[in-house]
Amino acid sequence: MAPAPNPALRPIDTSKWKKIQASKVGISLSMISFPSWIVLKILHKGGFEAYLVGGCVRDLLLNRTPKDFDVITTANLKQIRKKFHRAEIIGKRFPICRVHIKGSIIEVSSFETVARHDADKEKALSSLIPKICDEKDLIRWRNSRNRDFTINSLFFDPFTCNIYDYNGGMSDLKSLKLRTLIPAHASFQEDCARILRGLRIAARLCLSFSKDTERAMYDLSASIGGLDKFRLMLEVNYMLSYGAAVQSICLLQRFNLLNILLPFQAAYISQHRATKNSMMLMKLFFNLDKLVSCDHPADSSLWVGLLMFHLALVNNPQDALVIWTFASVLYHGNWKEGVEFAREYTKLQVKFVPEISEFSETKSDEDLAKEVAQFASLVQDSVGVLTETSNLFESMSRYPFSACSGLVFVPKITAKNTAKLFDLMVEDIRSFINGRGRMSPEINFHLLGIGDPCETRFVLGKIILETMKAGPRGDATEIGNDEKDLQPKATEEILSNNEIPGKKVKKYAPSAFIPDGNRGMLKKQKLVDDDTATKNQEMVTKDELNDLAEKHQEFGKTCKLSENKTNSMQGKISEKEEKSKKDKEKKSRKHTKVVEKSKHHIALHTVSKKQQRVVRELNLREEDEMDNLEKVLWKEEVKERTEEHKGRAGKERNGVSSLSSLFR
């Protein structure tokens, strides 16, 4: 009997291969990050083909900021490493070269690596290749067949400004469809991590699944339990740290993956869906999503800290005042301001079940300090549920009818560092100083991205305060933000209807909890059903309009009073100014001679120091000028390239709509 044909191999139809001019679909060279462009340029000057590939091309087409820029080249890994001063080869199964340049890391892969790894597949494919085929097309096509999804198999050549599509990726992008390159079951059996990657991409871009892909995800979801813990942590971090945590959690729950990765949280969500109670967990991640994004991600310690905080609350419900104080001290960075704020806002009577046990406003500072420190200790202890199987099983006794695989994947070093965030609160909370000082209420995303403890504590407190202030109804202004993306009720509707909310552009404003901060108007929004995404409709309530009208009238009165005072004082001010000018002129004449005499003596003593300082400044300027020179050269080349390709496009460009405009 003849062997069954490989389902991954299909007849090759080269007529479907496409080469699209980048300018016609809204992509210009200026959209490429400067470090990536340097890498591409160096490889190109070395005589090698170099392309942008994968998710960065997809995101550029969708007019989004890529998470990173991946480069692929015809050079082998050793040749790549020789071209750069700081580069190392990493990985065993699919090794790549990591290039450190301009403070960024660019991952560069080689066509040769994939071809060598899949030698057997290459032999099988060779029989399907047409006799007349361009060699460069053939190299790109072979590599594209090893990628996970069609929308990730696109190549962008920045030197010819062409995009190459061999698998219908552009068509799938237009229809916002996620589809595997080969039959989905075969693809996920080849690498089950593609299931998590597919859910992550769909959550961030609001994509739907092809029927084949969706069915395979359901059938093979259990296989992710066999993945390496490092790989699991990597994928989950991409889901929760880049602005699509709520959508990712919803999809993980939908495809029965949350009970494998985070069984306690899966059981909590299932119970609340059954009782139709508001979920504090989803509110926390909803507020996290408002702050972070692909170009401003957070370190994993932030979402691990949120899980620890929530675990401690579910297993040990607290007085609302304790939670307010705990979060407020993290946010304000000291005990005194934190307590004052907490006592003011605890009157809101926020009710989350089972997290909040009671409401009290009469606790002494001493008793409150003890309870907050005790709760901080419970938060630290809850990290064991994320790192130890025995602790996980013990906590799951709260949900006896929920499945638990016993899988834990959070690295112990990550858990240890996150637990350290609360050390100061446990030791002596009344003398707690965050160390962030009175910095701007705006988030420092560089520090947040590298896991700076002070910045992480600040943002953690901010998220908890926003969750508490909004409450189960979510009808309050947020901390440091003027807009709301969705009503918090959307989290329950998403979980019940398997819908994904559309993302909005984030705008960061001074905090509402800082005295001079700006408070935005309250806005209500509807969640409208849609196949690909939801749209938000904003309304201002009558009460808010009345309040605004009253404030406007009061403001008008104060303006009139200030205007009268200004007019009456104008004459006096002008007289004083004239007198002060005359006095200054007399004094300046008297001291001019003295200053001129002393200049010579001062110069003798300071000349050596000045020379040293000038030399240092010249060196720094020289370095800056070199960087600026590189940027100028790059911009000039970008300008030349874009003008050159504008001429090629001509009238044809005017008749073709930009692909990126379809997704705005």
Automatic annotation (TrEMBL):
Cited CDD domains: NT_ClassII-CCAase (cd05398)
BP term (GO), one: tRNA 3'-terminal CCA addition
Residues in tRNA nucleotidyltransferase/poly(A) polymerase RNA and SrmB- binding domain copies: 208-267
InterPro entries: NT_sf, PolA_pol_head_dom, PolyA_RNA-bd, tRNA_ntf/polyA_polymerase_I
Chain segments carrying region Disordered: 556-612, 637-664
Keywords for the protein's UniProt record, in alphabetical order: Nucleotide-binding, RNA-binding, Transferase
GO molecular function: nucleotide binding; nucleotidyltransferase activity; RNA binding
Superkingdom: Eukaryota
Ranges of compositional bias, category Basic and acidic residues: 573-586, 637-654
Biased composition regions of type Basic residues, renumbered to the chain: 587-612
Compositionally biased residues, Polar residues: 655-664
Domain called Poly A polymerase head: residue spans: 50-179
Keyword Transferase: yes
Pfam families: PolyA_pol (PF01743), PolyA_pol_RNAbd (PF12627)
Similarity-based family: Belongs to the tRNA nucleotidyltransferase/poly(A) polymerase family.
Protein name: Poly A polymerase head domain-containing protein
Species this chain originates from: Gossypium raimondii
